[in-house]
Structures are given as structure tokens and as C-alpha cells.
Amino acid sequence: MQEKVHHLVFNHPSFDNHEQVVFCHDPDTGLKAIIGIHSTVLGPALGGTRMWPYEDESIALWDVLRLSRGMSFKASLAGLNLGGGKAVIIADSRTDKTPEMMRAFGRYVNSLSGRYITAEDVGIKEADIRYVKEVTDYVTGIPLEMGGSGDPSPVTAYGVFVGIKAAAKHRWGSENLAGRKVLVQGVGNVGITLVEHLTNAGAEVWVQDVYADRVEEAVAKYRAKPFNGHFAEAEVDIYAPCALGATLNDETIPALRCAIVAGAANNQLADENRHAKMIEERGILYCPDFLINAGGLINVYSEIAKYDRQEALRRTENIYNTLLEVISIAEQQHITTHQAAYVKAQERIQNHKKSLVHS
Ligand SMILES: NC(=O)c1ccc[n+]([C@@H]2O[C@H](COP(=O)([O-])OP(=O)(O)OC[C@H]3O[C@@H](n4cnc5c(N)ncnc54)[C@H](O)[C@@H]3O)[C@@H](O)[C@H]2O)c1
Questions:
Q1: Where is the signal peptide, in residue numbers (predicted)?
Q2: pLDDT in tens, 60-116
């Protein structure tokens, strides 16, 4: 008899009522991808595609389910008429990626007829999105010269920066970051622009990345300092996770020496409720990732909603007020900032669902 396998898809701990999960395979190009559509209640499920050499496909599935669910809450909190979705491609972006693979992926996106709309994420750049655009219109973050809004990561970085200022205002009574010590973990598309904003604001910035060339660029361009120790032990005011998720976990939280965690990475909390509580108990202010990293989504949404860059930046600046509101709800209701953001996001989705039923 076949051994019973747990946690396939429907009973996966991160499944959380996903509407659709699509496994894509194209042997000719080596494409292996998973598209997660968590919710289309507020609109089409929009979320970027991540390319990463996952050790095995169960980790890729875990990642895509958590990411697409997070997109539902991100869109809802940002007030966008979008659902939540995300895709992962199991491959190494530095060695495996080809135009043919990106086109094959685009054909899968196209087959979903607009239920899922893709964009950039880790390992996927604007140049790759061009190939996807050749075969489907269900793609955003397309280059400016092709009529799109371009790479969303500078706007994501701006939103995180605005969020950091709001967190500083709450924590220290002033949003002035001059002299504040910040560790930016991951100096990729988002991280490098965040370093620029922080440096311009007078912060002392440390950087860390698995690729030496990324660190060298941050040092050369912005006089950032390389940080070589374990990130959790960095004696900084602010830890800004801008690499991959789950860096806040049982091992790292007790070691943290910062006062604020605020970064772009999705799913920073390995176990969202338990670890949000652990951080709060340590007296550290956690800025919910899906709230402060919404700038990129707001920017790519401009391609659908037809607003301009200035409007995207204005909407992104609203992250400041939303974060302060969420912190205030958390304090009043004695819940974590993560829970407060989650409840606020769910409220809008549930209200919209009810209005659909009654209309
Ligand atoms: N690009 C966007 O607009 C956007 C929007 C919202 C959220 N995010 C999230 O922000 C994060 C960064 O996105 P990006 O577009 O800058 O990706 P990226 O691939 O350009 O950069 C990620 C960087 O992190 C580095 N990295 C990976 N593991 C690391 C580790 N253990 N320690 C240190 N560095 C490590 C990588 O080498 C890379 O340089 C991701 O979690 C992404 O999901 C991005």
C-alpha cells in the first residue's frame, strides 16, 4: 500500500482557502513553476513571479502559498481592487533562466485568462518581463518604453522608507533618521534603493548579501558598510529585511538587538502569529511586511487603473498613515501589529464579499 503523504495541497498548513493552485511544466525549456491564486474577491490576483533554486518542490509550494496569501492582504490594505496571487519558478536565475523559459511561463499565465496577473519578484527583472509580455497581456511591471510602469522595486523601496520614518516617529517621537543605524539585509532591486534613501536621510547603513558584488555596489555607490556577522546580532536601531522570508524565527528573535524591524521581504515571520508575539514581547516594533512593502504593487496597479507615477508615489506615501493607524489599533486592542494589519485587511475583503452576495 502506498505510504500516506501529508500536506499535499488542500490540507497544506499554508493553503488557507486558496482558490486555485496551478502546477506548470514545460520539458522543452525546463520550466517548473507553481502559480498560487489565493483570492480574486477584490479583483484579479496580481503578484510577481519569483525565480529561486528551491531545494525541493515542497519548499516552493510552501513559499508560493504564503506569498500569494500575503498579496491578498497587501492589496486590501493598500486599498487596491486586486486579489492575491503569486508564482514561483524553480530555477537558478543566474544560470537557468532563458527567454524561452520566460515565454513558456507567460503562456501558462495567459491560459488563466486574467485570473492571475504577473510582475517581477526575486530573480525576475524587467528584461525577463519583456519575454512574458510577448505571449500574454496579463503582465505588469513592463518597461516604460513599452507603455508600462517599469520596475516596481524603486517604489517598493520608497514605501519601505516611508514606513521606516513612520515607525521612527512612533518609536522615538521623530521621523528624522540622521545618525540612526540600519542594517539592510539583501541589497538587490529593492534593498539598493532603500540604502540610497536611508543614506540621503543621514542614516548609518550596513549591508549584507550572499553575493559580494551586491555588497560592493552598495559600498561604492552609497558608502554603506559591509556587515559580516549574523544579521540578528547586529547592534542597530533598525533591521530592514530585504532578502527572502522567514528570517524572524525561534533562533533569530531572541538574538535581535534592534528597536524596529521594517523591510521589504515578504513573509518575514516564519510562524506569523507566534513570532509576531515573540517580537512584541521583546519590545521590538514590527512593521507588517505586507503593509510597508506595498509600493511596488501600487505602482504596477497603475498599469491597470491608468494612473501616473506621481499618483503611485502619493498612494505609496499613505503607507505612513496606515502603519501608524495599525500600530494604534494594535495598542488599543492589545494585539500584535501583524494581527492588527491582518484584521484590517480581512475586513475589506469580507465586506466586499458580502456586498457581492447581496448585490
Ligand atoms: N521587487 C519588488 O518590488 C518587491 C515588492 C514587494 C516585496 N518584495 C520582496 O522584497 C524582497 C527583495 O526583493 P528584490 O526585488 O529586491 O529581490 P532581488 O532578488 O533583487 O534581491 C534580493 C537580494 O537578497 C539577497 N539574498 C538572498 N538571500 C540572502 C541572505 N540569506 N542574506 C543576505 N542576502 C540575501 C540576494 O542575493 C539578492 O541580492 C523579496 O522578499 C521580495 O519578495 C519585492
A1: none
A2: 999 999 999 999 999 999 999 999 999 999 999 999 999 999 999 999 999 999 999
The model's pTM is 0.93
Cα–ligand 1 centroid distance for 214 (angstroms): 11
Is residue 191 lining ligand 1, measured as CB closer than 6 Å? yes
Q: How far apart are CA 114 and CA 178, in angstroms?
A: 45
CB 118 within 8 A of CB 132: yes
**Ligand 1 center to residue 323 CA distance, Å?**
22
Question: Binding-site residues for NAD(+), please?
Answer: 186-191
CA distance 182 to 179: 9
Domains and CATH numbers, the chain: 9-68+83-144 (3.40.50.10860), 152-294+323-344 (3.40.50.720)
Flag whether the ipTM exceeds 0.95: yes
Please check whether residue 122 is in contact with residue 188, taking contact to mean a CB–CB distance below 8 angstroms: yes
Q: What spacing in Å lies between the alpha carbon of 81 and ligand 1's midpoint?
A: 25
Active centre residues (catalytic)? 86
